[in-house]
Write a structure and sequence with these properties.
This protein is of the alpha/beta class. The chain contains 10 helices and 20 strands.
Length: about 475
Amino acid sequence: MGKRYIFLFLITLTTVAIYFNIIYRNPYFSTRNFMKHIETITSPEYRGRLTGHEGSEKTINYIEDNFDKMNLIPLGDKGYKQSFKLNNVQLSGECSFRAFDARGNLLKEYVYGKDFKEISFGKSIKGKAKGVASSSIKEGKPIYLFEEEMINESEDDYKLDTILSDNGVKATIYTTDSYFRFRTPYKLQKNYKSGLIKIMVNPTVSKEIEAFSRMGVTFEIKTNTENKNVEGKNLIGMIKGSNQTLPPIILSAHLDHVGFDSDGTIYPGALDNASGTSFVIEAARILKKSNPQRNIIIVAFDAEEVGLLGSKYFAENPPIDIKNASVINFDMVGSNKNIPLSVLSISENPLSKEVISIMEKINIKSSKLYMDNSDHASFTPFGVNSITLIHDDTDKIHTPYDTIKNVKEEKIIDVFKVLKSFFTYNDIVNDKNFNVHENIDKVDLYSNYIFLSFITLVFLNGLLFIKRKG
């Protein structure tokens, strides 16, 4: 009986050791972990991760906790945080849009979130404008209507706003069916002396406004947006490489999104960009165990949605020398649509060429995009090779419908394979120490099987112990 008891006890210890080795020393990139991170930071309490808002602070704390668990080396001003100041448009109250007939009677009250919505780019200000709408600047009407769908963020918007303001325009109405989708943010101009009240409407409402305008109908627009001075926070951690003479690799993603609107609707931002943030967190977990040759800088940028401000600040104030670094940014990765993984850069550079070549070698469908609408663009003025890997699916971004359903777990494996191949082809990590498990369910099944075996053995040991005592 004693030998049998000792034998079962040793088997139990071995089972426990194997189980904890699988759970706590998992050498694989886990798509399950990736999805759990997305689920967390897109949940309602994170409030759409608007820079300077409490939801953003909660996100920052979550990422910081993960960096801390991985024992990354802090490179911020205070721990992992690199703080900077910015001006951000935030909601401060309700918005309304109404039409009145010639006698001043209420003709129609438009529904917020269905017929119209405030705009928070450029110098969008709080206030009220009332008058006739016109699509001609020369008429000098207080409300200007864009007849065609024209909604974006660029330097041209600043110039156009200035022209409109100089011609007596107080408010602008944009037409869009995109529901709060803007692609190229820019920094608020310092010499913006005055702003405009801005709303957007869907195409049906736009046509109605045109018809009403011909009838002399008066419109009243009221918005409650404020330009606030807030603090943005990048999070920076480092995995130390074995060869300090080699330049670093920077892996980045932006943590912020567009927040919520005046009726409380939250914009979760799952694909944009909880996906990139979650990918970088999980990649860092595996890289920490891979003993890389080069320093790996892990960065979560803040304030991308208001003009790439976090990455610009980082590029201007790097915590270590990044002169010859390579920047791989992740923005909107894992779309559930059947689209290629794009390599986004301002223009072709050695890094973009290399990554495209790698994708061809490992048979991953790719495309090239030359744009400045993600954080890679902040490094180009400093001569740093940079790209963004992106599944360029814009159908639901900056809408309440960009939920975790917009992200496909299996699609992220391709993104990891590209990163893994880049590291292994350049001898930055050992191939065996940096891997993805393509069937994580089997790993979970194996873990659960071992755990149940452990419980069974404990039960049997207990029975033997009781029997022996008896």
